[in-house]
Amino acid sequence: MKKILFPTDFSEAATNAFVHALEFAKVVKAELVLLHTFEIPVYDSQFFPENYASIYSSIELAKFEMFKDEIPKLRAIATERKLDDIVIKHRLMDGDLIFNLKNAIEEDKIDFVIMGTSGVSDWTKFFTGSNTSSVISEVKVPILCVPANAKYKKIKIIGFTTRYREKDKAELRKVIEIAKKTNAKVKSLYVRTSNTDVSDATIKEWEKEFAGENVEFLVLPSDEVKETILDFILYKDVDVLTTITHKRSFFESIFESSFSKKIAKEVSVPVLVMHET
């Protein structure tokens, strides 16, 4: 892993995620590319015939000045955490966030994205924020999404949810590689419902195939899938929860139940979103 893209709006949520990005960059020996995007509002030139160009210039200048003022604050965080040896580069781009993200990923050959959520303090709106869900849908490299109140701690256990589909193996191997770099253990969860179609033979085959890796396979019988995943996060000390993009619509609904709202603030762990290959 060579380059990590960190999109930021310089909000409190983004600054919190920056700490995660710094620490992760240190572990995997990568450089950080900070991206700040802004959209210039569209004005009708017939109403501003004389100062039409100056309006745009002043907006761009203001954004540049803000960008210039905020960067030293982030570098101060790096210095405070004794991580100022990490290479940090910057991109200030006007236009659509998703368009600029995809361009930055392609042009800078980005391997990984780390971003904060849109300032929500729990997971009830985590996957439904327009920016976060759009990024998850459109960007094809792994994304670590950090809730606003998820304070950084060393990653010791990475949770991985699976339905034992053959294509999930490739993503599990990627997670295992990340776990090796962070010296973490992977705990793979399958919730076996009463109408399951996964055989014991399939589960045994996975256990045999990954026998040499630091992976624990957990099969929990329950028809309450959402609550079981939340229990898994809470009681198995999961530091990062991995999901695959085909499950995003499912995860959007996880945090809507009254049960989940009660404990939402207790499960503020980053979510690592993998993309099917």
From TrEMBL:
InterPro entries: Rossmann-like_a/b/a_fold, Universal_stress_UspA, UspA. Residues 1-147, 175-274 form the UspA domain. It comes from the Bacteria. SUPFAM superfamilies: Adenine nucleotide alpha hydrolases-like. PANTHER family: STRESS RESPONSE PROTEIN NHAX, UNIVERSAL STRESS PROTEIN UP12. Belongs to the universal stress protein A family. This is Universal stress protein UspA. It comes from Flavobacterium hibernum.
